[in-house]
Amino acid sequence: MSAGPIPQYMFFTKGVGKHKHSLQSFEVALRNAGIAPLNLVKVSSIFPPGCKIISRKRGLSMLKPGQITYVVLAESRTNEPNRLTCAGIGLATPASGQHYGYISEHHGYGLTERKCADLVEDMAATMLATTLGIEFDPDTDYDSRREIYRMSGKIVESRAIVQTAEGDKNGLWTTVVAAAVFVC
Predict the structure, then answer these.
(1) Mean pLDDT in the chain?
(2) Residue 165 and residue 83: Cα distance in Å, rounded?
(3) Burial category of 56 from C-beta neighbours within 10 Å (exposed 0-12, middle 13-18, buried 19 and up)
(4) Residues 6 or more apart from 37 whose CB is under 8 A from it?
(5) Secondary structure class of 91 (helix, strand, coil)
């Protein structure tokens, strides 16, 4: 039995789209993110050991239209004027290159870009911390826990990519996407 592909590279992208139809606003958001011509397959949230993060430009140049492409995708849509919508992806990577990391996603309403970024970064770092045996109080604020994670020496980095937008004032569908895109 052969194992499935293990991604060698990953890049982040985001986009926003507006259209009178919900599905087409999603398509416009994917175009804005540069990933519309790909056959996207949503996967869960593991960052493979040894995977390298590359630029969006380099990642897109390695993919071909129609290619089956694995993504961790966050998306949110609204047709309510002025409603704030958000989609975010967080990543936490371990110090040991032999261990996997975590990717988190959130899609929702009412969060600013900063708050959404903090949320997805916190989720990814917390999932990684629990698998690495880092002791912390889950009820403390993320800034305090972030310091504990960093001081443990077991988590190298956490980061986020977020797309927010206000619903179109004339009621067009507004879609936001954020994605971690794998290249095998």
Answers:
(1) 94
(2) 8
(3) middle
(4) 65, 66
(5) strand
